[in-house]
Amino acid sequence: MTRFIIALIVTICFIFLLAHPWGNIPPIGSFFSPQEGFWQNAEPVNRHFPEQIQLPALHDTVELWLDKRWVPHIFARNQHDVFFMQGYITAMFRLWQMDIQTMAAAGQLASIMGPDLLPFDRLQRRKGMVYGAEQKLKAMEADSLTRSILDAYTAGVNAYIQTLTPRTMPLEYKLLHDYPRKWTNLRTALLIEYMADDLTGHSDDREYTNLRSTFTDEQLHRMFPDFPDSTVPIIPPGTAFARPSKANPPAPADTALARRLLADSVSWATAIHPARDYVTGSNNWAVSGSKTASHVPILCNDPHLSLNLPSLWFEIQLDAPGMHVYGVSLPGAPTVIIGFTDSIAWGVTNASRDVKDYYAVHFTRPDKKTYLWNGKQVPATLRVETIRIKGEPAFHDTVAYTIWGPVTYDPSFPDTITHIPYLATHWQALQPSNDLKTFYLLNCAHNYQDYVQALSYFNCPAQNFVYADKAGHIAIWQQGWFPLRWKDQGKYVMPGDRADFQWQGYVPVAENPHVMDPPQGFVFSANQHPTDATYPYYYTGDFFYYRAKRIHDVLNQKNYLTLQDMMRLQNDVYDTRAAEALPLLLAHLPESAVRAHEKAYYALLRQWDMRVTAQSKAPMLFYTWVDTLMHALWDPLLSPVHRVVEAPSMQTTIEWLLRDTSMQFFNAYRTQPMSLTELVTESFHAAMQAVRKIDSTGTLNWGEFRGTRILHLTRLEALSHPRLATPGDAATVNAITSNHGPSWRMIVQLGQRTEAYGVYPGGQSGNPGSPHYDDMIDDWLLGRYEPLRMYSPEDRHHPDIETIIHVVP
Fold first, then answer.
1. 378-420 pLDDT, tens per residue?
2. CA gyration radius, the chain
3. What are the angstrom distances between the C-alpha of 549 and each of 231, 497, 553, 576, 790?
C-alpha cells in the first residue's frame, strides 16, 4: 500500500508538472503532445485545403483561390463578403501576429510576457494609444460605409477564431501558454494607431529644448536648418504654388517664455544622441510614358520599415462589385494599402512632417485634478489605466488628459530628457479621422479625380501618395492634416498654460504639396523636403536628402526606362552621401600623414566606387571615419549642455565644412583650436585603429559586420533570420540597416494589360512550420521579384492556382 501511495503521489506530481507552466516555459505536456503540441504546426509543402467551407454569416457564395505562394484571391458577389473573407483568410495565416501587434499598441504585453513589459505598456497608455484608437473608431463608425467594412472584417476574423482547437492553435500561443482574444473594430483602430506611432511618433522637441539652454536661436538655425544647402524636393523647383487662403500665424509676443521652461529643472550628465540621418525611410516614384520604353506609366514603391517575421505585409486580391484590386494589406485591417486596380496604381512613403508637440503643464496640486489655462484653473480628465501583469496584481496608472492631450510625463513617470515635471503630448494621431475610407476609395478608384477624393479623408500618419493611371497621368500628393505654424513652432517644448501657443488651425487639404504630370516626366519621394522655400506655409520635420538625389538623377538622366531599370533602381546601392563627403575628407588628409599600417585602408577608400555591396570593405572604413569625425566636431560643443541632446545631421555638417573650412564656428568651443586638416587626420588615425580590431576578426566586409536581422516578433532566434549579409545603407536607394529595410517592393506597368512585380522579406504564412513562412527572403535579398497576377474568374485554370475553395453561407 505504501508503494502504491508513493507511486500515486509521484504520478500526480508528474501530471501537475506536465500540465502547468513554469516561468516562461509553457506546459511541457501539452506543448510536446503528439495530438495537440507543436508537432501539429508543421505543414507539408502540398498542404491540402478543404474544397468547401460553410460560413453562415456570408450573404452569398464566395470563391477563394490560393496560388502557389498562398496569395488569396477572393471573388465575392458583394462587398460585405469580400471583407468578411479578407478577415477570415488573414486570420487563418496571421492570427497571432494580428493579436500581438494590437496588444502592443494597446499597452497590454505585460499580461502575456510579464512585468518586464510594464514600462513599455505604461508608455503606450500614457502616449494615448488606446485613446487615439478610440477617437479613430468613432470617426470610422460614424460613417456607415466604413462601419460596415469594419463589421464584416471583424466578423470574418472571429469566424476563423471559432474554428480553432488546441491542435490547430498557432505555435506562438502554445509557446506563450496563451489564447486568442476576440477581435473587435477597436483592435483594427489600434493597428492603424500603431502605424501612426511608428511613422510620426518620434519627436526631437525635448532634445532641441535642452540645446536652447546653451545656444542662441541663430546658432540653432545654423545647426538645424529648415532648408539645407542641398535639396531635391518632391514638388519640382519652380512649380507655382496657389495663393494661400490662410496665413502663417504670428509668433506669440513672449516667445522667450518657452526658453525659461528649463530654468527650474535639474542639469544632468550630457548624453549626445547621434544624428537622425542614419534612419531608413521609403521610396516611391512614377514615370510617365514619355520616358518609358513601353510608352505607358510605370509606378514603383518600396516602403522601408522594421523587418520582422511574420512579415508586416500580407499579399491579397479583392474582387467584388465595384472593386478589383491587388496589393498588400496590413494583417488586422481591411482593404489593400499599397497596390493597383484595373485602372490605377498607388504607393506611399512617409511625409516625415512634424505633427507631434510637447507642452509643459502647470497643475495646481499634485493630484492633477486642475491645471492653469489662460490664467484660470480648469479641470483635467483623469483616466485610470488598468494594466494586467502576468503572475502579478494589476497595475493602475492615472493619466491626466488636458486640452493638449495626455500628460505623458509626470513625477510617477518622469521625462528623463528635459526633467520638466509635467509634459503633455499634443499629437495629430490622437484626433478623430477616417483614414480607412481613403484606402477603400483607392481600392475602387478609376481615375485621378477618384484618387484626389480618396486622399481628402486621410489624416495621420501623413504620407506621400504617388499615383499613375492607364490614361497616362502621373501625380504625387503629400496628404495629412498639417497644423499652421509660426517659424520654429513645434521644434521645442512650449508653455502649456497659454492659448497663443496652440496650433492655429490647419493647412487646407487642397493646398498641401502636390503636382500632376510635371514637365520632367516623373514624380518621386524619398522622405525628403516636400517643397523648396517658396511654399507659402511653414513646416518642419525629419527630412532626408541623399536617396532622393540618387533617384532624381537616375530618372532625370535616362529615357526609355523599362521594368528591369526600375528593379535595378530599387536595388541600387550607390551611396550619394559618401560620394559627397569622401572627397572633402580625402582632400584634407595629406597622403604623407597616412601611416604604414593604414595604407591599405587608404587605398580602398581612394578606389571605392561608392557602391555599398555586402562584400565591400570601403563602407565600413568610411562610416567609421566619418562617425569619429562627427564626434570630434560636435562633442566639444554639445558636452557643456549637461543634458540629453541630439547632434546635427551629417548632411548639415558636411555642407558646413564645405562653407567654413577654417573651422571658425567649431574652434570657438575648443580649448585648443585645430584646422580641418588636423581634425580629419586625427579622426582618420583613430578610426583606422578601430578598423584594425574589426579586421582582425575577419568581419570587415559590410554584409558581415553590419548585416541585417529579421527577427520573429517573440525575438526567438530559432524562428528568425538573425544574420543576413545584406548590401546597402540608409543613404542608398536600397536602404537596408541592421533591422530596417524595404518591407515591400512593388513595380506596376500600366499598359493595356497590367504587368506587375513584387517581393517582401518573408512569406504569406505566419506559421514558422510552414514552407511559406519565409520563402521570399532569398529573392528579396538577391533583388528578384515575383509576378503579381490579378486574376479574373475565367483564369480559374491558370497553372499558378493551386487551390479553389468554395465558401457557402
1. 999 999 999 999 999 999 999 999 999 999 999 999 999 999 9
2. 28
3. 8, 43, 6, 8, 33
| Exposure class string for 84-121: b at 16+ Cβ within 10 A, else e | bbbbbbbbbbbbbbbbbbbbbbbbbbbbbbeeebbeeb
Which residues touch 613 (CB under 8 Å, ≥6 apart)? Answer: 573, 702, 703, 727
Instruction: Determine which helix (DSSP H) or strand (DSSP E) holds 613, and give its type and residue range.
Output: none
Q: What SS3 class is residue 201?
A: coil
pTM score of the predicted model: 0.93
Is residue 205 within 8 A of residue 492, CB to CB? The reply is: yes
Strand partners, 610: none
Contacts (Cβ under 8 Å, ≥6 apart) of 415: 206, 408, 409, 423
Which of the residue ranges 61-75, 215-229, 611-625, 757-771 would you say has the lowest mean pLDDT? 215-229
Positive or negative, the CA dihedral 261, 263, 264, 265 is positive
Q: Which of 232, 280, 275 is nearest to 612 (CA)?
A: 280
Least confident interval from 204-213, 321-330, 574-583? 204-213
Position with higher pLDDT, 670 vs 711: 711
Cell of 257: 517664455
Axis-axis angle for helices 79-105, 144-161 (nearest 10): 80
Contact at 8 Å (CB) between 244 and 536? yes
Residue in the structure block whose three cell numbers are 509606378: 299
Backbone phi, then psi, for 357, in 5-degree steps? Answer: -125, 160
Residues 512/478, Cβ–Cβ less than 8 Å? yes
Instruction: For residue 632, give the nearest of 592, 660, 672, 659 by alpha carbon.
Output: 672
Residue percentage of the chain with pLDDT more than 70: 91
Rounded CA separation 319/63 (Å):
10
Q: Which of 628, 640, 669, 648 is nearest to 269 (CA)?
A: 640
**Rounded distance, CA 241 to CA 621, Å?**
44
Counting runs of H as helices and runs of E as strands, what totals does the chain give?
24, 32
In this structure, of 235-239, 271-275, 623-627, the range with the lowest mean pLDDT score is: 271-275
Catalogue the long-range contacts made by 395-399 (C-beta closer than 8 Å, 24 or more residues apart).
Answer: 395/110, 395/118, 395/122, 397/122, 397/125, 397/126, 398/368, 399/125, 399/126, 399/128
Alpha helices in 224-261 (DSSP H): 256-259
CA–CA–CA angle 156, 175, 395 (5° rounding): 85
Which residue, among 477, 473, 483, has the nearest Cα to 452 in the 3D structure? 477
CB 582 within 8 A of CB 608: yes
By C-alpha distance, which of 344, 567, 347 is closest to 472? 344
Residue 336 cell numbers, joined: 489593400
* DSSP string of 350-371, one letter each residue: E--B--EEEEE--BSSTT-SEE
For residues 439 and 222, give the distance between their C-alpha atoms in angstroms, rounded to a whole number.
40
Euclidean distance between CA atoms 771 and 779, whole angstroms: 15
463: enclosing H helix or E strand: strand 463-469
Write the CB contacts of 803 (distance below 8 Å, at least 6 apart in sequence): 49, 65, 66
Beta-sheet strands, E only, within 485-624: 494-495, 514-516, 522-525
Which tens digit of pLDDT belongs to each residue from 573-630?
Answer: 999 999 999 999 999 999 999 999 999 999 999 999 999 999 999 999 999 999 999 9
From CA 790, how far away is CA 798, in angstroms rounded?
11
| Amino acid 201: pLDDT | 86
With b meaning 16 or more CB within 10 Å and e meaning fewer, what string describes 507-529? Answer: bebebbbbbeebebbbbbbbbbb
Going by C-alpha positions, the residue among 200, 212, 783 that lies closest to residue 461 is 200
Quick one: pLDDT at residue 516? 97
Between CA 423 and CA 494 the distance in angstroms is: 9
Q: What is the pLDDT of residue 80?
A: 98
pLDDT in tens, 423-464: 999 999 999 999 999 999 999 999 999 999 999 999 999 999
